[in-house]
Amino acid sequence: MPLTPDPAPSAAIAADARDNETTPANPTIAPDFSAALDEDAALEASLAPVDEPGRQPKMRAQDVDVFYGDKQALKSVSIDIHDDRVTAFIGPSGCGKSTFLRCLNRMNDTIPSARVDGHIELDGQDITDPRMDVVQLRARVGMVFQKPNPFPKSIYENVAYGPRIHGLASGKTEMDAIVEKSLKRAGLWEEVKDRLDESGTALSGGQQQRLCIARAIAVDPEVILMDEPCSALDPIATAKIEELIHELRGRYAIAIVTHNMQQAARVSQRTAFFHLGEMVEYGKTSEIFTNPRERRTQDYITGRYG
Amino acid sequence: MATGHTLKAFDDDLDRLRALISEMGGLAEHAIRESMRCLVQRDVEGAARIVENDKKLDMLEVETERRAVQLIALRAPMAGDLRDVVAALKISGVVERIGDYAKNIAKRVPLLENIGQIEPLSLLPEMARIATEMVHDILTAFVERDADAALRVMERDNAVDDFYDSIFRTLLTHMMENPQSIGQSAHLLFIAKNLERAGDHATNIAEMVYYAATGEHMTEAQTGKKP
Fold first, then answer.
1. Does a structural domain hold residue B1?
2. CA angle A278–A279–A283, rounded 5-degree value
3. Are the Cβ atoms of B6 and A303 closer than 8 angstroms?
4. Which value, to the nearest 10 degrees, does the dihedral of the CA atoms of residues A154, A160, A165, A171 take?
5. Given A213, B10, B83, B194, which residue has the most CB atoms within 10 angstroms?
6. How far is A287 from chain B (nearest CA, A)?
7. For chain A, which residues make up each domain, given as ranges?
8. pLDDT grade for B181, boundaries at 50, 70 and 90
9. Residue A30 pLDDT
10. A6 touches chain B (CB under 8 A)
């Protein structure tokens, strides 16, 4: 009969044996290991603390209200967006997440019935100021849309257009360099370098979206806003865009609106949950998806909204 | 959580996982109770059945793992749901282990068939009763996501530990007075140890249940661990 031998009976050994099997790994050692092993923890540790004195968020929205005619689409939303992380906005349709994203580069100006109240800053500068040059603003705060929308021009021209109108290149050589760098950063260069003259609209959906990202990058923005950039793409093209977002993180502040919660979980370090025009909860992505504080967040991310 | 998922099949999957854990718990409790009955009544055949029935518990553990992995793959559970599934996965392993303790006790029954009526023999069933109640209550707490019930189970582990210390001392005295019974007394000591381990595992499950239900880990004061 396989009965294990036990040490000599003494009260000390008995007490010791009772404890040893349930005591978890030494708690004083564990954090060091987990920080080294856990990529997310390492990434989180590398992010500058938000409450660091003197640290300015890249963009700061305070008490932002948006009305479309009489209907209030956003109710007093306040969020800081930092330049070393990806911030995701999630929530059901009509919750205001896209409306909020569009406030960040004043895209709502293009909707006649829209009215935006509140305070939105880029590097401490009020962007809602009527004297603000919105063309300049949108060069600094670029945008990528749900449906890839390349210009009906060549791949080269799609990327060169922005730098040209902003006068960023002083000659053909310089422009070539900007186009190549932008396409490389967008992960598209290898696929199109031999056919830059072909039409941008002839590319596949995923390639078109990366072309749009290259176009946004070409004017050297500080913030990139993405409004459901993958919802029209297949899973492989989606994975490429997500990998791209990872690579662009740190170089640009990135804010992304997505209906795909798994995508928010995969690409972002901070997540904000919107519901009925309110910003319900904003926090670390890892916490929002494992242990949300608000009941409404919990119901939404676990699939309990009927 | 009070409200169900928009996708009803998701609720069904989670319920089935909880039902599996309940079933495993029922088998483990029964195995420990039976092992005590067989010990007290010198029922060697009954003890052999306990050893045989333990295979069912092993199978259910495999089934729980299969369902949990499938649920994670197909439903992508989040937040409280995810914590529940991970807890179920871990708890099934612990309950299987509790079943192993019952099996280990049962294996000692034939070796103690002709033991006299010594005092620890009357203490062990009472100790087993508390340990099995802990197992029962903590698995109920898991199914009902009841963090308070998990804390109450934690508190009862002290009673099991006290029983163990008491039985340990009694057996030591018994061995010194009756050197010819040292072998059998040692077996009884292992049985007490197995019951003590079962109680400890119930507290481990309590920590898992608490985390699954609240998203927070128990504080050191709540786990009652000595520094």
1. no
2. 165
3. yes
4. -120
5. A213
6. 9
7. 59-301
8. confident
9. 42
10. yes
What's the confidence (pLDDT) of residue B2?
Answer: 53
| Torsion of Cα atoms, B76 then B78 then B81 then B84, to 10° | 90
Q: Which residue has the higher pLDDT, B226 or B8?
A: B8
Q: What are the pLDDT digits (tens) for A79-114?
A: 999 988 999 999 999 999 999 999 999 999 889 999
Rounded CA-CA distance B103/B28 in Å is 10
**Joined tokens for residue A78:** 């306040």
pLDDT, mean over chain B: 92
Least Cα separation, residue B196 to chain A (angstroms): 8
By C-alpha distance, which of A123, A104, A94, A83 is closest to A252? A83
Range of the domain at B31: 8-223
Residue A52 confidence class, pLDDT cut points 50, 70, 90: low
Per-residue model confidence as pLDDT tens digits over B91-138? 999 999 999 999 999 999 999 888 777 777 888 999 999 999 999 999
Domains identified in chain B, total number:
1
Tell me whether residue B20 is in a domain. yes
Residue B15 φ then ψ, to 5°: -60, -40
Task: Answer whether residue B139 is part of any domain.
Answer: yes
Chain A residue nearest residue B101, CA to CA: A3
Residue B75: inside a domain, yes or no? yes
Provide the H-helix boundaries in chain A. 11-20, 30-37, 39-46, 97-103, 134-140, 155-165, 172-185, 189-192, 205-218, 235-248, 261-267, 285-290, 295-301
Residue A292 has its nearest CB partner, among B79, B171, B172, at B79
Task: Calculate how close chain B gets to A184, using CA atoms only, in Å.
Answer: 34
Give the predicted TM-score (pTM) of the model: 0.78
Residues near A98 by Cβ (< 8 Å), separated by ≥ 6? A89, A227, A228, A257
Inter-chain touch B76–A262, beta carbons under 8 Å: yes
Q: With contact defined as beta carbons under 8 Å apart, do A282 and A79 qualify?
A: yes
CATH number at residue B97: 1.20.58.220
Surface of A (245-284) touching B: CB under 8 A: 261-262
**How far apart are alpha carbons A266 and A262 in whole angstroms?**
6
CA B198 from chain centre, in angstroms, equals: 5
Q: If one looks up domain A59-301 in CATH, what number appears?
A: 3.40.50.300
A183 neighbors A193 (Cβ within 8 angstroms): yes
Residue B83: HSE in the Cβ half-sphere, 13 Å Cα cutoff = 25
Kindly determine whether residue A302 and residue B77, on different chains, have CB atoms separated by under 8 Å: yes
A276 touches B66 (CB < 8 A): no
Band of pLDDT at residue B161, cut at 50, 70 and 90: very high
